[in-house]
Amino acid sequence: MTSSQYKVIGSRPLRPDGVDKVTGRAVYGADVKLPGMLHGKILRSPHAHARIVSIDVSAAQALPGVRAVVTARELPSVGDTVTDLGESVVNLRYMSNNILAHDKVLYHGHAIAAVAADNPHIAEEAARLIKVTYEVLPHVLDGRAAMAANAPILLPDLRTNELGKQGSSQTNVAEHIRHQRGDLAAGFAAADVIVEREFHTATVHQGYVEPHAAVALWNEDDQILVWCSTQGSFGVQEQMAELLQVPPSRVVVTPTEIGGGFGGKNSVYLEPVAALLSRKAGHRPVKMTMTRAEVLFGTGPTSGSYIRVKMGATRDGTLTAAEAEMIYEAGAFPGSPVGAGCGVLFGPYKLENVQVDGYDVVVNRPKSAAYRAPGGTNAAFAAEAVVDELTEKLGIDPIAFRLHNAVREGDRRADGPELPRIGFIETLEAARDHAHYSAPLPGKQRGRGVAAGFWFNWGGKSSASASVNADGTVNLVEGSTDIGGSRASLAMQLAETLGIPYADIRPQVVGTAGVGYNEGTYGSRTTFSTGWAVYELGKKILDEMRQRAATHWDVPVDGVTVQDGTFAHNGDSMSFRELAGQLEVPVSVSASVFPSGFGPSFAVHIVDVEVDVETGKVEILRYTAVQDVGKAIHPAYVEGQLQGGAAQGVGWALNEEYVYDDKGRLVNASLLDYRMPTALDLPMIDTVLVEVANPGHPYGVRGVGEVPIVPPAAALANAIYQATGVRMTELPMSPARVSAALLAAAVPA
Amino acid sequence: MKSRVIVSTTINGEPTEFLCEPRQSLLEVLRDVLGLTGAKEGCNNGNCGACNVLMDGVLVNSCLVLGVEAESHRIETVEGLAVNGKLHPLQQKFLEHAALQCGICTPGFLLSAKALLDHNPDPSEAEVRHWLAGNLCRCTGYDKIVRAVLDAADSA
């Protein structure tokens, strides 16, 4: 399909929620205000690892203005239920323990108790009056150290799931997984060149600008009403139901606008605590918002990791074998994205002989949460650097090498599944042919790097409904949090299907009480899957309207055609709007889908850097992100995904990390010291949208949001090598680390 | 000491009196006392710019100004940008360039950009980037924001 087939898809209309968002009128999590509302605050652990000996809340309770204090004792006991949070799974017993620590604190900042009071200042003061006695325990922050025989044990009941079999001894290793195919020894024996390297990546945070915020009301009728900033209302409903042991139907979640999530706003933190406080405080609504420090202490982050990669290739540049070991730090409870990391690692390449071992390891850091292509950036940083070194040793152009080894439709991924129609080859060709790739780059300490990335994407369950108004406009009711323009991309797909103008679609995002079940906005699934639901709505509306036109003309329905929003029969015709104005019985429809034809995404990034040898600072001179986007419904928002993902990847690559002291305390929990990229740190980010339509979607959509964060760190490391001759194997490649590496290699200024 | 103080200000052109506790920041006053929730709290310590407002035409982090310090000063917030039902050119250009994704940082960026264009109507890309370096956006990579500001300057 070419874009000329479409009237709406591929255009760049203004977003339906735009005016509210540029006038400050849009209501985000912290903007919710209810009559009689109290304010809650959480007390957090000052220790990385300690047994809670006692908690004395009497002084807090006695402070005037305090209405309720809760601890983990108020949480019902939860069994070992594993729930899918969208790109991460979690055992709810552990999740309960994460929300309010039961008998041990497992990281600096672990929530222990909460207070509701008349205003936030009183609540904060009261939280400080809670006396906790701790027995401090030895802590462990590093994944490999946590695997050692004498390491402090975080969770006494944890046993390793060792390739599917349950272990019998105490451990910090929650799981060992393995992908294996072919004959590794024979593969390496056939190689002319073998490169093996070790890599480390730091713990990083999603860094959404809006801190977590929620209001909960435990009503006298035992309905629990929640207003919160979340990637998925139904996910909040499910988690609340499990954590509080109430039926899901009793939890009604209304989503607010969301100020960024990137995976970090799928799991609940404040919502169940606010509900408990509300019940205890005489059924008054309780609002809880996190400070930035709390966001960094208690939410997110994604795993730091250790990765060892070994790859071999023949002289002509054919990969013969690849092997890797990946150790991901899950944080205090199991559930790192190591599984996804294992899939992304060699995802772009055709490999017959491959083995990947992954370990999910608990350490005394915050419980990790999904972060945009979870686990992918770590993996690509390692594998793409080894590929770069292979191409150097073989004297083959990096893109030519990748083209030679690239996966195509029908190839099998290292982790099993066969690939559908994908656009990796086209993406590599577009990168190769881009003016950036062949532009001269004169000057000292300047270099160009390139890296590829793969992401699975997801489909998932979506529901939506629509009704036709008498003036010919259509209300679209959907349950997918709009995190970056999906009201527009969904309204456009409905307008295209109906053949009516985009402006005639009125989209609205509602909560659990207003629409059928929806998975959250994660996995690059909304424009794909909810888009499919919306396409079904369009078809149903047209079917229904054709019936009505047939009745109007008193002819069989088969004789009525519809094209471009016009119904016709034998010379008679009526526009969608005219027919809508004559409907006696209203037309309203709903649709639920669970499509499986989501297509994977591939990206290739090119970056030019200049390295300041004195300071180790890496300056980005030029950046180009090339990606197979399937079909760009709203190209401006697709470009925005590529640019935003690249920028986050740059932050991960060059600056961002959790810094701990020797007692395991996080020492940089502020946006001054946790340094995310600013406008001054980045150039314009050029994008190339390669459109290889996904045959698994009516409009060719494939997910676009996640893969752009996969290549940046690797592309930057490869560029730094070209600039300095030094291969950086540790993230972030901050000025301190780069200058230390340059000094060690005696690179002259 | 009185527990609350009466403060007289002008907010978005309207003479406004409010009652605030001496410990409340201007951001708290705007959001919790006056119901002007366009200014956002992203960090509460001056590092993200989501709460930016203009005070006598000067860009400030409203989280770092006390409510009582607003006495006799003129405050401009995002709610005052559109006049008589017409969006400010910056608001219009942000929409046209898709310069927002989640939108939480947008009010702060609009105020920062307004402060820039008010005193430098024709900035270079480098000047825009320098001026906006106090505002964090985690969604866009800044590309479309910078273009929107440059375009607003060109079309003014």
What does this structure look like?
The complex is a heterodimer of chains A (749) and B (156). With 749 residues, chain A is α+β, with helices and mostly antiparallel strands. Chain A folds into three domains: 3-25 and 459-593, Aldehyde oxidase/xanthine dehydrogenase, molybdopterin binding domain (Aldehyde Oxidoreductase, domain 4), CATH 3.30.365.10; 32-137 and 210-259 and 265-298, Aldehyde oxidase/xanthine dehydrogenase, a/b hammerhead (Aldehyde Oxidoreductase, domain 3); 305-457 and 599-744, 2-Layer Sandwich (Aldehyde Oxidoreductase, domain 4), CATH 3.30.365.10. Helices cover 28% and strands 25% of the residues of chain A. Chain A has 20 helices and 30 strands. Chain A is globular. Chain B has 156 residues and is α+β, with helices and mostly antiparallel strands. Chain B folds into two domains: 5-80, Ubiquitin-like (UB roll) (Roll); 89-155, [2Fe-2S]-binding domain (DNA polymerase, domain 1), CATH 1.10.150.120. Chain B has five helices and five strands. In chain B, a hairpin with a 2-residue loop joins strand 1 (5-11) and strand 2. The radius of gyration of chain B is 16 Å and the shape is globular. At the A-B interface, helix 1 and helix 18 of A face helix 2, helix 3, helix 4 and helix 5 of B.
Please sum up the structure shown.
The complex is a heterodimer of chains A (749) and B (156). Chain A has 749 residues and is α+β, with helices and mostly antiparallel strands. Chain A contains 20 helices and 30 strands.
